[in-house]
Amino acid sequence: MPRRRGCPPPLLCALAALSLPLLLAAEPRAKSCSEVRRLYAAKGFSQSEAPSHEISGDHLKVCSQGYTCCSQEMEEKYSQQSKHDFRNAVVELSNHLQNMFSSRYKKFDEFFKELLENAEKSLNDMFVRTYGRLYMQNSELFKDLFVELKRYYVGGNVNLEEMLNEFWARLLERMFRLVNPQYHFTDEYLECVSKYTEQLKPFGDVPRKLKLQVTRAFVAARTFAQGLAVARDVVSKVSVVNPTPQGTRALLKMMYCPHCRGLVSVKPCYNYCFNVMRGCLANQGDLDAEWNIFMDSMLLVAERLEGPFNIESVMDPIDVKISDAIMNMQENSMQVSQKVFQGCGQPKTLAQGRTARSVSEGGFTARFRPYNPEERPTTAAGTSLDRLVTDVKEKLKQAKKFWSSLPGNICNDEKMSVGTVNENECWNGSAKSRYDFAVTGNGLASQVNNPEVEVDITKPDMVIRRQIMALRVMTNKLKNAYSGNDVDFIDISEESSGEESGSGCELQQCSPEFEFNATEVTGSSNKSDKTVNTSAAATRSGLSQAALLLSLLFLAMQRQWR
């Protein structure tokens, strides 16, 4: 029987049926996922969750839904891993900066505190040797001076100018009694004496010069140390990053979606990574401008610490300066006493027996011996201010533009494995190919056109906004310190302290409370010079309130001493 035309022989049909499974096995969907499984297990995940060969990707929500090496569980865990990797990258880079500010703050703080301790000890040792029992009977006066200086440095509500004026007023009272032991002085009489302090200048020019030097040096030192602490705290708070859901999708797509395609050795394109990081760090980018202004202000105050506001050069010889003032008072005691007697009247003379006892018990039986300056400690905390400032200035310069550079630094991190060699052989978010999108700008507003991360530019991160305000407050304080102005200690945690940098009012115009709280370097100098040549009546125009206040303090303290 003849065969029908077109019907294949039975042998061919059998061969075709046998070869069909082989053809199907040769298709791409049968590609092995062994390397993906190995790397997945290396992350600490269960290898059983990873398929041995490619499967359909219909279950995937972010990565490509073609044939894939990722199960649904893998994509979910890769999503969490991408957030973890991103946070660690930010923290690792930020920790270096935070630790730098923390260590420098501790070093400066330790130095300043030890410098005060050394200065107090040096004065005490020198005055015991020089003035003996006379000093020891009045040592609480000098101890109180250092207590107030220390309290000011740690943030206490101390007005340096008023505190120093009170110190010299109390010293004048003690000295005036000692140089005139034959007289009895009432509280009212001593109050009158205090009114002539500026005119008589019983301690020479030491109080005026020391007031300027101490105020400028302590304002700069305290403000600079606080600035280091603020920088440390800002970095600590801002470096804690929680990516948005849109940011997490972009991170997963960049870091681990290539694994699902089996492209485990292909690295993300650099510009692609840059866009993802700028989108995820959009709010941190907004910190950069205020941060850079803050760093510049810190550098300016650092220069002051090296030069005219050097607290080490002020505190180290403070014992000698106070001794000079005491010697000046003794040498001019007769002239000072005569002028006081002319202005305040002749005091009552004590009985002869009481006068003799006063002299023998603590008056001047001889002139004060001149001080004998010996070698005193010129450093504290094992270093010097110059070395500390030189070191920290270099660190401050390196810290500028940290936040705008953070996305690029993360992409350059070896752990991120970003491709930079061949721009056509990198992962662009969908395939191993060139990345064609431009890099977006820095900051929240610039992310409106970010091709990789959907960012809501109408909802800024409030934590970062508060840190921006904290930087502005601190910058304003640094500017005042640079000019030599003493301002009240400001707690940066207070929301009311949020004026923009450079927008603060003039201290004397803000509130009457600041009238004697702000010490302008040139202003104070001119004011003191004019006071020397004015009469007691003229002092009422501008400083009468201060004189009255000091007189009341003087009277109250004098009664307390009695």
TrEMBL record:
Per UniProt, subcellular location reads as: Cell membrane
- How is this protein named in the record? Glypican 4
Query: Topology relative to the membrane, per the entry?
Result: Lipid-anchor; GPI-anchor
InterPro entries in UniProt: Glypican (IPR001863), Glypican_CS (IPR019803)
The record's similarity note reads: Belongs to the glypican family.
Cellular component, GO, one term: side of membrane
Task: Identify the species of origin.
Answer: Geospiza parvula
Pfam families in UniProt: Glypican
According to its UniProt entry, the function of this protein is described as: Cell surface proteoglycan.
Question: Its gene?
Answer: GPC4
Q: What lineage is on file?
A: Eukaryota, Metazoa, Chordata, Craniata, Vertebrata
Keywords assigned: Cell membrane, Glycoprotein, GPI-anchor, Heparan sulfate, Lipoprotein, Membrane, Proteoglycan, Signal
**A biological-process GO annotation:** synaptic membrane adhesion
Tell me where the signal peptide lies. Answer: none
